[in-house]
């Protein structure tokens, strides 16, 4: 059956080519009524070209947009996400997007409309990075296809079909031992920000949760703060304060808004805390730990001290069928303080 006028055509180019089948569609008409053509793309097989032409006619799109490459979509998306560049809080995500983009270098020159699931999957499969890094690459693909669909560049999201596989490496958490904790205490006066590591160890806060704590969340007199996120049980929970770390908090109560701030007095980003402070302190003390090891250390210390299991769950924000609400009575606070003072 002959295609109707304006439908477009598929034809084979001369010579030896990797993608010899060209798809040409009508892009308009001249003043004299003559058709103007634009090339939609080039394909290895005729049936691939015919399918591309059929999809175009099912939902016609701007041919100029169809020429937009993976790299151009990325640049446009990043400019929309970070029009003035990333601030301190956004720096970690911004770096993650850039790293993932570099991992997909073989896609940079491809027209975005031609990218399929197999193209994306090959990037993941060929990567020798960790499972977490592969997940970040897939997140980038998800974000780019979402953006491309919003801009009417594509009509189908192939990123949802990408499989990053199972995490066989496992997540290994290594608590600080007694000797290492003593080393932290011994260097409190010498190394700036080392007290924040001790605050994490004696509160069970996640690093990101500590960076979100505002001065208004802290009650020094009654020895507790409110904070936390991640889960319903963890959000805005009451965290008792061990007497050992109170001086560290008191010293920071003259900040403007957040407990932990950078050199400009603004909320410190996780990237800033991790790479500019935590990592450097670990290097100076010749210790091998990650920030989240502090939370694992807290759980270990509490367990070794035979602290009440329910108290540990409440402090750390773990869900429990025994926790029916988030209203803390005076008795609750007293029990949590008694538990925290065991370590």
Walk me through the topology:
Layout lengths: L8 E4 L8 E9 L5 E9 L2 H13 L4 H4 L3 H12 L9 H13 L13 H10 L4 H20 L27 H9 L7 H10 L3 H6 L5 E2 L4 E4 L9 E4 L5 H6 L18 H15 L8 H12 L4 H8 L13 H11 L3
Antiparallel strand pairs: 1-2, 2-3, 4-5, 5-6
Helix pairs in contact: 4-6, 8-12
Brief overview, please?
The protein has 343 residues and is mainly alpha-helical.
Shape: elongated
* Structure annotation, total helices: 14
The helix-and-strand class reads mainly alpha
Helix fraction, binned, reads: 40-55%
Hey, roughly how much beta strand do the residues contain?
5-15%
Distance between the amino and carboxyl termini: 82 Å
The ordered string of helix (H) and strand (E) elements is EEEHHHHHHHHHEEEHHHHH
Q: What's the alpha carbon Rg, rounded to whole Å?
A: 28 Å
Low-confidence stretches: none
Identify the strand order in the major beta sheet: 1-2-3
Please summarize the sheet with the most strands: 3 strands, antiparallel
């Amino acid at each position: 059956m002959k295609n109707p006028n304006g439908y477009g055509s598929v034809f084979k180019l001369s010579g030896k080519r990797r993608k010899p089948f060209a798809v040409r569609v009508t892009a308009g008409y001249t003043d004299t009524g003559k058709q103007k053509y634009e090339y939609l793309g080039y394909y290895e097989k005729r049936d691939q070209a015919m399918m591309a032409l059929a999809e175009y006619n099912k939902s016609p799109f701007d041919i100029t947009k169809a020429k937009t490459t993976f790299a151009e979509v990325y640049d446009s998306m990043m400019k929309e996400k970070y029009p003035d560049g990333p601030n301190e809080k956004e720096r970690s995500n911004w770096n993650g997007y850039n790293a993932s983009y570099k991992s997909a270098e073989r896609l940079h020159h491809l027209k975005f409309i031609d990218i399929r699931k197999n193209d994306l999957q090959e990037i993941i499969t060929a990567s020798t990075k960790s499972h977490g890094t592969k997940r970040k690459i897939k997140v980038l693909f998800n974000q780019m296809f979402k953006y491309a669909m919003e801009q009417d560049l594509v009509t189908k999201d192939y990123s949802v079909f990408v499989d990053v596989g199972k995490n066989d490496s496992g997540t290994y958490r290594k608590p600080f031992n007694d000797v290492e904790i003593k080393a932290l205490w011994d260097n409190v006066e010498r190394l700036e920000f080392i007290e924040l590591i001790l605050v994490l160890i004696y509160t069970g806060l996640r690093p990101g949760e500590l960076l979100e704590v505002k001065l208004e969340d802290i009650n020094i007199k009654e020895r507790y703060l409110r904070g936390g996120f991640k889960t319903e049980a963890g959000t805005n929970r009451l965290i008792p304060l061990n007497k050992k770390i109170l001086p560290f908090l008191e010293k920071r109560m003259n900040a403007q808004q957040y407990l932990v701030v950078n050199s400009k007095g603004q909320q410190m980003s996780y990237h800033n805390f991790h790479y500019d402070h935590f990592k450097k302190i670990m290097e100076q003390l010749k210790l091998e730990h990650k920030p989240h090891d502090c939370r694992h250390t807290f759980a270990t210390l509490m367990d070794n001290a035979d602290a009440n299991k329910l108290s540990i769950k409440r402090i750390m924000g773990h869900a429990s069928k025994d926790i029916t609400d988030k209203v803390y009575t005076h008795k609750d606070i007293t029990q949590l303080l008694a538990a925290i003072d065991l370590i």
